[in-house]
Amino acid sequence: MPTSTRAKLPRPKPLSPSQQKAYINEIKAAVKKRVNVMRGFRVGETVVEPSVGVCRIEGIKSQQIDGKREDYYIFNSGTAKVYVPLSQIERRGVRRPMTRDEIKKIYAQLKVPVIPSRSDARLQYLAYREVMKSGEPQKISKLLRELYMLDRMDELKGKEKEIMEQAKKFLVDEIAFIREDPKAKVLEEIQECLDSMYKRKVTKDKEARAKRAQAANN
Predict the structure, then answer these.
(1) Residue 18 has pLDDT above 90, yes or no
(2) Taking the CA of residue 59 as centre, how many other CA atoms within 13 Å lie in the half-sphere pointing to its CB?
(3) Statement: the pTM of the whole predicted model exceeds 0.85
(4) Helix (H, G, I), strand (E, B) or coil at 27
């Protein structure tokens, strides 16, 4: 009976330290991408991308840029398309829209009186820009509240006014989408919250002045 023979395969050459490092990094990148997709977003889902606001995931496309191939989410806001690498989803602050309960918390937060802080104008403007880039509703609502207070105090500068309007629009667009309400209605509600906050601040200041005056007379 003929004896079967197996062809001997050449033993794989050991990887050099640099090749091992590159291989490990490649595996890490693949795992990270897979995790992002698994816990991330599906095509057709609505998300919030900070640079464009509420948008729909139109698809995932592989592109090669500067010799590097990577998968990109395609976000469509209706007025703009944004391509975001899967590996940068977390860093870019892409998230799902707020819940209705979260909207209620935003409205409550807008009504809380605040004392605006002032620092170096350039640094403060850059800080405002960072808040807008974060796309986080709580941070943006706090920023809007502070800028609105400065506006009522006639201390709001040109670029700051632009950011205030951007912050207002950002919240209006998302809330209107979630509740399926007209943007005009949501804008009116937000304005009412801000006006309520300012009135409470004025009342609080009057009470504090009256107490100081009473203490001075005693």
Answers:
(1) no
(2) 3
(3) no
(4) helix
